[in-house]
Specification:
By secondary structure, the protein is of the alpha+beta class. Helices cover about 35% and strands about 20% of the residues.
């Protein structure tokens, strides 16, 4: 057998762009099955529309149209009334992997990887060979249309057929995007596009969402509230949420002159007095040195010192939940249950320094639950930062928390009764269990808090069921008595000589 030298072996060594990587590993972006792939496309575009509208202070109106072209091939168009995309950014925003306005900001947001819409462009390209068509209205009397695709070798946008269009209504603004996608399937199921949009309307009650399905049927989820949610604000990380690698990453891009000032300027709840405490615990760290020269061993010692110190909890005001009243209105508007109990828990912390808020609702009767051939069964609707999670439920903290509860204690049978359980987890950092962001990692603090929230909501439903059962008992007693009322009146009349009519 011939022995090869290192030079010969490494002749085939090549660098690959991130676009090429995802081209060969599209399942990592959520494009893993026909139904899921179509939902992923709709999710990415709708999420972008919601974010854009909210940042611009506009109540979202989003129209989604899905048309079947041939077996396994569908056209998807999404139009919104957002601010549009400036012409110089259309290609970068929609056809460059890991580019966007979110990834560099430490704040609560629906998505932050910079893959979303560009991933859709890539998926269209590799399944149909077609570019994505875009028309952007920015409210300045002109619109811009073009076709975009990705140069996967260099992860760069390719923009074709660019045109500038005069708009009669000069103030019109919004984005229209249309792509053709293969290896997809439209399905009316718990994991389909309709269910995704229904749940999106529940968790985003300020949005109006219209769906036109492949058969031409139109469904409009009207907005339940007329106020735009408060926008989350950027904040700084809390020291207790840092790993050694995190600390090094922050240090090596810092503009501070000393480690001491770097800590104060980069992280919340860090004062000079707190730095002095750390100095006493991390004896081998020179706090006067340039943070960009911080070594792994020094960072490791510093993290240990941080975890040995008492800290004020992170400020949870930077987390914007859906809101109890908003959830109640959305449930009433879309599910119209006979009764609902909604709970918003106080902020808690996981991994030592990452704040989160749990909202839980239990809806009973009406349109709650899921109809089956034998009657009804309960369903669990999972959300993270208002985004519906339709897949990978088995590995999700929400599913685990719901499974651990003793539902009989609350007189609820989720196997046979019309009950819907809605749970939303809001945080600056959602610990997803995979790249597809469809399941929340099973952090103990999150599971415990979800259980407490659902238990509190379930107690409200328990009281309703008990009152309803009690009312039924009283009603049945009344019916039983009235069944014998005439005979009883006759008997009493004969015994007392009182006129039967008076009795």
């Amino acid at each position: 057998m011939e022995t090869l030298q290192a030079d010969e072996i490494f002749k085939e060594f090549k660098e690959h762009s991130i676009s090429e990587f995802f081209k060969k590993n599209r399942q990592m972006l959520g494009y893993s099955s026909p139904v899921r792939s179509l939902v992923t496309v709709v999710h990415e575009y709708v999420t972008n529309s919601l974010d854009a509208c909210e940042e611009a202070g506009i109540l979202p109106e989003i129209a989604i149209k899905i048309s079947k072209i041939s077996e396994g091939v569908y056209s998807v168009s999404v139009e919104d009334n957002g601010p549009g995309i400036p012409k110089t950014f259309i290609g970068k925003a929609l056809a460059t992997i890991l580019a966007g306005t979110k990834f560099h900001r430490y704040m609560q947001q629906r998505g932050q990887q910079g893959i979303g819409a560009a991933g859709c462009t890539l998926f269209s390209q590799i399944t149909t060979g077609k570019p994505v068509y875009v028309k952007s209205y920015t409210g300045r009397g002109k619109a811009y249309s073009c076709e975009i695709s990705i140069d996967t070798m260099h992860n760069k946008p390719v923009v074709g057929n660019f045109a500038e269009i005069e708009v009669k209504d000069g103030v019109r603004h919004g984005l229209y995007i249309e792509g053709k996608f293969g290896d997809v399937k439209y399905e009316n199921s718990d994991h389909g596009v309709y269910e995704y949009l229904k749940r999106t309307a529940l968790s985003n009650p300020h949005a109006q969402i219209k769906l036109t399905d492949p058969e031409g049927k139109e469904t409009i989820f009207l907005r339940s509230v007329d106020t735009i949610p408060e926008r989350p604000k950027p904040t700084k990380p809390h020291p207790l949420g840092l790993s050694t690698n995190d600390l090094l990453d922050f240090a090596h891009v810092s503009q501070s002159r000393k480690i001491s000032s770097f800590l104060v300027e980069t992280f919340v709840r860090t004062t000079q007095n707190k730095v002095n405490e750390l100095k006493e615990l991390a004896k081998n760290v020179d706090f006067d040195k340039d943070p960009r020269t911080l070594t792994w061993n020094e960072a490791e010692e510093l993290v240990k010192a941080i975890r040995s110190t008492s800290w004020i909890a992170p400020d949870a005001s930077y987390i914007i939940a859906i809101g109890k009243e908003q959830i109640e209105r959305a449930l009433k508007n879309i599910l119209a249950p006979d009764f609902m109990s909604v709970v918003k828990r106080k902020p808690q912390v996981f991994r030592g320094g990452i704040p989160f808020i749990v909202e839980a609702a239990v809806a009973f009767g009406g349109g709650a639950g899921k109809k089956t051939s034998e009657g009804y069964e309960g369903n669990v609707m999972r959300f993270a930062n208002r985004v519906p999670l339709l897949f990978d439920s088995g590995s999700c903290a929400i599913t685990e928390a719901v499974k651990e509860l003793d539902w009989k204690r609350y007189k609820i049978d989720i196997e046979t009764q019309p009950v819907s359980i809605l749970i939303n987890v809001s945080s600056i950092y959602i610990p997803y269990s995979g790249v597809g962001k469809e399941a929340i990692a099973q952090e103990n603090e999150i599971i415990d808090e979800i259980k407490l929230g659902v238990m509190e909501a379930a107690r409200g439903v328990q009281r309703y069921i008990s009152e309803r059962v009690s009312a039924n008992i009283d009603r049945n007693k009344y019916k039983t008595i009235m069944r014998y009322a005439d005979q009883l009146a006759k008997d009493l009349s004969s015994l007392t000589d009182i006129d039967e009519a008076k009795i």
